[in-house]
Every structure is written in C-alpha cells, then in structure tokens.
C-alpha cells in the first residue's frame, strides 16, 4: 500500500486572521480612553474579552487601561481640587468668590435704590434677585465649619459689608475675601 504524505498547513491566512480581534472591536475598546464615559466602553470590552480571552486579549488590555486612565485622571483632579491647599484650584475658588461678591454688591446697590435701605440679610436680597448666588463656595472646603453656607453679611446703619470668611472659616481675619481683593492674588 502506498503511503500518503499529505500534511495540513497551519499557516493558512484565514486561520491566522481569525485569531486576531476584529478592528471594529479594537476601536470600540479604544473608546475606553475617553475620560468618564470611556469606563462604560471599557467594561463592555472586558466583558467581550471574557468570551474568548486568547483571541480578545487586546480588548481586555485596552478596556482595563482606559478604565484605569479615568480613575487616575479623576483622582488627580479630586486631590488637587479638594485636598491640596494653595494650588491653582484655590486661586480659581478665590476668583469665583470675588465675582460672586461683585454681583451681590451690584444687587445690594439696586435694592437700596428701590427700597431706600439695605436688606436685613442675604436671603431677603435673594428673594428679589433670584439669579445671584449667596452661598459661599469656599465654605464647603473648610473643615468643621459650624456656621451657615452664606457669604458673611454685616449691616450697619448706613452701609453693608459682604465678604467670604476664607479658608479658616472665621470672619475678620487675613484670609477673608472681598470683592476688591483681586490684585492681592495675581
């Protein structure tokens, strides 16, 4: 009997092509690098990769890397925005307070023109000028602050003083923020 020397080749181009993940799924996994919403693409990519890990290993790596990127970005933003003091985010908070205080001062002047007197408190002013913000954003960064979250409001017989109590949470200290303080921080 004659022996058959027939061999099956394993380097068939179709077989090699099937071992790789389709380009559409790779692009889909790449969307996981979009901060925040990319987490959903990353989770879906990881779930798809679990069906055939050998073939879709790249999807798993891309999906997990995109999720980790979002975690690193938002952790860094949280740290610099909420925990670290004296950085660029504190300057932005001061600038925001100054602009809010300017709006409040304009509305206080308008209120006095209409009524002849200043309002007894900021809540009374806010009833007429509903679009202004009377809450001090810096107060939310002060640990163990016991007062209310409004700007500090001091009414005398002929004038009014409105300011932010600053990072120490105490009025009439060096870190108080007034509407005219912008040049100190530049």
Give the amount of beta strand, in percent.
Answer: under 5%
The SSE string, one letter per element, is HHHHHHEE
The neighbouring-strand order within the major sheet is: 1-2
Q: What's the number of helices?
A: 6
The chain-level structural class is mainly alpha
* Biggest sheet architecture: 2 strands, antiparallel
CATH topology of the largest domain: Glycoprotein, Type 4 Pilin
Averaged pLDDT? 83
User: What is the strand tally?
Assistant: 2
Gap between N and C termini, in Å? 97 Å
Model regions low in confidence, pLDDT < 50 over at least 5 residues: none
How large is the radius of gyration? Answer: 31 Å
- At CATH's second level, what is the architecture of the largest domain? 2-Layer Sandwich
The domain count comes to: 2
Level of helix content? Answer: 40-55%
State the CATH class of the largest domain: Alpha Beta
What would you say this structure looks like, in words?
With 186 residues, the chain is mostly helical. The protein has 2 domains: 71 residues; 98 residues, Glycoprotein, Type 4 Pilin (2-Layer Sandwich), CATH 3.30.700. The chain has 6 helices and 2 strands. The protein has a two-stranded antiparallel ribbon. A hairpin with a 4-residue loop joins strand 1 and strand 2. Helix 2 packs antiparallel against helix 3 and helix 3 runs antiparallel to helix 4. The radius of gyration is 31 Å and the shape is elongated.
Topology:
Blueprint lengths: L12 H6 L4 H8 L7 H12 L7 H27 L4 H28 L6 H7 L23 E4 L4 E4 L23
Antiparallel strand pairs: 1-2
Helix pairs in contact: 2-3, 2-4, 3-4
């Amino acid at each position: 009997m004659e022996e058959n020397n027939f061999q099956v080749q394993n380097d068939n181009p179709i077989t090699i092509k099937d071992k790789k993940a389709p380009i559409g799924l790779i692009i889909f996994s790449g969307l996981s690098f979009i901060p925040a919403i990319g987490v959903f693409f990353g989770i879906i990519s990881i779930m798809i990769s679990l069906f055939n890990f050998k073939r879709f290993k790249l999807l798993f790596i891309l999906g997990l890397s995109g999720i980790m990127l979002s975690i690193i970005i938002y952790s860094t933003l949280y740290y610099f925005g909420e925990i670290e003091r004296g950085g660029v985010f504190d300057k932005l908070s001061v600038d925001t307070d100054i602009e809010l205080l300017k709006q409040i001062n304009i509305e206080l002047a308008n209120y006095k023109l209409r009524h002849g007197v200043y309002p007894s408190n900021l809540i009374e002013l806010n009833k007429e000028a509903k679009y202004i913000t009377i809450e001090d954003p810096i107060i939310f960064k002060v640990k163990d602050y016991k007062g209310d979250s409004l700007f500090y409001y001091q009414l005398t017989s002929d004038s009014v003083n409105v300011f932010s109590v600053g990072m120490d949470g105490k009025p009439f200290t060096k870190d108080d923020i007034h509407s005219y303080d912008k040049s100190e921080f530049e």
